[in-house]
Amino acid sequence: MAYILGIETSCDETAAAVVGSGEHVLSNVVASQIATHKPYGGVVPELASREHLRNILPVVRSALAEAGQTYRSLDALAVTQGPGLAGALLVGISFAKALSFALDKPLIAVNHLEGHIHAVLLEQLQAGHRDISFPVLALVVSGGHTHLYLAERREQGWSYETIGHTRDDAAGEAFDKVAKLLGFGYPGGPVIDTLAPLGDAAAVKFPIAQLKHR
Question: DSSP readout, 121-169?
Fold first, then answer.
């Protein structure tokens, strides 16, 4: 079995995971920064970077220990290269590059949005669903992005076609901004999510979404 250590520091969570043979998640360790950013009502990039510096080594060590692996038993490393906060990304990339050089192991740069898509595909594999037909239509809804992609598996990797995306704020940003205006604190998204079913869906008439490019 080939083992890959994945490292993620694109925003406000330091995460590391060990995956075996491309489909077996042997560990998944995440260090949250909610307590750090809560007093400011949102993520402060400089503080996020400093927290990543503090957390990355213990998080990686925990991921390896939980998976029963060592640095030397790894076959490759993978790290988020973007998109994300520049300073936060720099911590993960620098750490992964140093490990790759010291261990003489291959380093794989991962697009954070592509990672969202493959996380779902990985869950499907783990659930025993191996009959996925391609191409697949992938909706990526996160804090900073709301995109619709057509993902196709190729002989030498994957290809992605952008079908559509929001023109201004992503869905996650809208959640956070509305929560802040209503005084729900940070993170306010879960509060909005809890209260939404209790509201009147017809109270505000929204415009029809743009279906064609101008």
Answer: HHHHHHTT-----SSEEEEEE-SS-EEEEEEEEETTEEEEEEEEE-SS-
Q: What are phi and psi of 93, to 5 degrees?
A: -65, -45
Cα 74 from Cα 136, distance rounded (Å): 31
CA separation (Å) from 104 to 50, 67, 90, 186? 27, 21, 20, 41
Least Cα distance to 50 among 105, 9, 21 occurs for 9
Structural domains in the chain, CATH included, are 3-114 (3.30.420.40), 133-201 (3.30.420.40)
Rounded CA gap, 86 and 45, in Å? 8
* Tens-digit pLDDT profile for residues 187-199: 888 898 899 899 8
For the segment 129-156, what is each residue's pLDDT rounded down to a tens digit? 888 888 999 999 988 889 999 999 888 7
Look up residue 30 and give its two tokens.
């995440």
Place of tokens 């809804």: 141
Residue holding tokens 């898509």? 117
Question: Which residues, other chains included, contact 106 with Cβ-Cβ below 8 Å and sequence gap of 6+?
Answer: 75, 76, 77, 100
- Rounded-to-integer distance, Cα 209 and Cα 53, Å: 42
